[in-house]
Specification:
Mean pLDDT: 84
Radius of gyration: 29 Å
Distance between the termini: 65 Å
Shape: elongated
């Protein structure tokens, strides 16, 4: 199998810089041993104006058979092909992708010790592969390579036999890619998409393949319109690994949209402690208060926004009155723990049809959350920076607009009652703020008035006559269905904390959440 990489240049910016990028001297022919044969690198042309590097992979069919039999292990990808007579030595596949990663390892990483500035340069590139298996045809080739920045993607079907045109085209295409890209980006795209188009790998798929995919897809795979198909095929349709990869890609997408690091978003689970083994009574009280409030308003379809490890979702599932329960969280680890808690994989069909766990950011509007009876935000708002609260307010109260919204948050006045909590400290290291009762009521009243809700308040836990309850909650009830009339929009910097008159409502309904590390019980 064979591919060429070409570029053009000038005397001031010679095309032979390609040799530095590939770490292969244009004046030499080099051979490299691979697990299934020998890879040769050579330069058919190398001038200041034009330079072409060729990679020729000679596959040893005997080694291919000895290293594995059948699809996915190193032998033939189709049962109809014999072990020793097949297309593996001639058609670009995962064998060529592995050779690319081994022979051009530094170029894939975007590293060049001799000329560190070169990898970041965008240069004219032309890549040609004479025979590329394309399960999905030329149309799929365009769908996969088109979004990667290539100006021209030509996938010309290879006929089965020119002598017998009535036989039609084969499943192979001649691929020519042209455009201005960084070389490392071009190679990473090839590394991922060659086995995807062939839809076959010559080795067993292990969990570390997810990491390889995400490294090679960094910067483009999360936003690719065909990311689901790419991920599934690259991981040989391994269900568990594909789900893991897609969840991690979604977190990358959310982090990029939020301007945050992935680690900042995926921090909802404290791996050093197990809150289930050390239940916190206050968490139980919150959950009971929420369940009572949801029952009082007759909610059947409920959103648990910031569901954490799924304690509330689990409690809701025990009551058949709740016909649809959706848990939403930005943390993949939290959702995975929630799925294990609920035993989703072993849950019966009738029960599983009532519950869904989904990844999402509460700072963005989501049409999937529209039309529910109630939404719960339990111990969630204090984890947001104050300037992000208007975005959450609009996403929940302005866009999703459930009939009832339950919000619980710590009462900072009560912190003096925790003997283990140092003065001036918040209950959890990730809390961006903790409000007094007056501050919480001012915020809730302002939100309610701007979005067409009325709000009532209720204590959770012992209501201390001096400092109030440990948890405060607000129950918002929709009074003006339809489009809200307020001025808040997602991402705007509205001001919270303005005092206003509190209206009464139905029985208050707080939300529950997994106690965070350092939170007093």
């Amino acid at each position: 199998m064979f591919l060429t990489i070409s570029t053009t240049g000038t005397a001031g910016r010679p095309a032979t810089d390609l040799g530095f990028l590939l770490h292969k001297h244009p004046g030499k022919t080099q051979a490299f041993s691979t697990s299934h044969g020998t890879a040769h690198v050579f330069y058919p042309e190398a001038t200041d104006e034009r330079c072409t590097a060729g990679l020729l992979l000679e596959v040893d069919p005997v080694t291919l058979v000895r290293r594995g039999q059948g699809k996915g292990q190193g032998g033939t990808p189709d049962a109809a092909l014999a072990q020793y007579v097949n297309d593996r030595p001639y058609a670009a596949s995962s064998l060529l992708a592995v050779a690319l990663s081994g022979v051009f390892r530094s170029a894939l990483k975007g590293q060049c010790a001799a000329r560190p500035e070169l990898p970041d340069e965008i240069r004219p590139l032309r890549i040609e592969i004479p025979a590329l298996p394309a399960r999905g045809g030329a149309e799929l080739v365009h769908r996969l390579f088109g979004p990667l920045g290539w100006e021209s993607v030509k996938a010309t079907p290879v006929v089965l036999d020119e002598t017998f045109p009535e036989w039609g085209d084969s499943r192979y295409v001649r691929l020519v890619l042209e455009g201005e890209l960084r070389l490392c980006d071009a190679l990473r795209g090839l590394y991922v998409l060659l086995p995807v188009l062939d839809d076959s790998k010559h080795y067993w798929i292990a969990p570390d393949e997810v990491d390889k995919l995400l490294r090679a897809g960094d910067g483009w795979l999360a936003e690719h319109p065909e990311s689901g198909l790419i991920t599934s095929r690259y991981l040989a349709r391994h269900k568990r690994l594909t789900q893991d990869a897609l969840e991690r890609l979604e977190l990358v997408r959310l982090a990029e949209a939020d301007g945050s690091e992935v680690e900042e978003l995926d921090n909802a689970v404290d791996e050093s402690s197990d809150t289930e083994e050390r239940p916190v009574p206050l968490a139980v009280l919150r959950r009971e208060a929420i369940l009572a409030s949801l029952s009082a308003v007759g909610a059947a379809r409920v959103l648990d926004l910031g569901c954490g490890q799924g304690q509330l979702v689990q409690a809701l599932l025990k009551d058949p009155a709740y016909t649809e329960i959706v848990g939403v969280d930005v943390s993949i680890r939290a959702l995975n723990l929630a799925a294990k808690r609920l035993r989703l994989e072993r849950m019966g069909e009738r029960q599983s049809s009532r519950v869904r766990l989904t990844q999402g950011s509460l700072a963005y509007t989501d049409k999937r959350l529209v039309g529910y009876d109630a939404a719960v935000l339990s111990e969630v708002i204090e984890h947001l920076d104050p300037e992000r609260l208007p975005a959450l307010e609009y996403a929940v109260f302005g866009s999703a607009r459930p009939r009832t919204v339950l919000v619980t948050t710590p009462n900072v006045e009560y912190n003096v009652r925790w003997e283990t909590l140092p003065a001036g400290h918040v209950r959890h290291g990730d809390h961006r703020f903790e409000w007094t009762r007056a501050e919480f009521r001012a915020w809730a009243t302002d939100v309610a008035s701007r979005h067409g809700y009325q709000v009532a308040y209720a204590p959770v836990g012992d209501d201390d006559p001096e400092v109030g309850p440990p948890t405060q909650m607000a129950v918002f009830t929709l009074t003006t269905p339809g489009t809200h009339t307020g001025t808040g929009t997602a991402g705007t910097a509205d001001t919270a904390g303005k005092p206003s008159t509190t209206s009464t409502s139905t029985t208050p309904t707080p939300t529950t959440d997994t106690p965070k590390e350092g939170e007093a019980a």
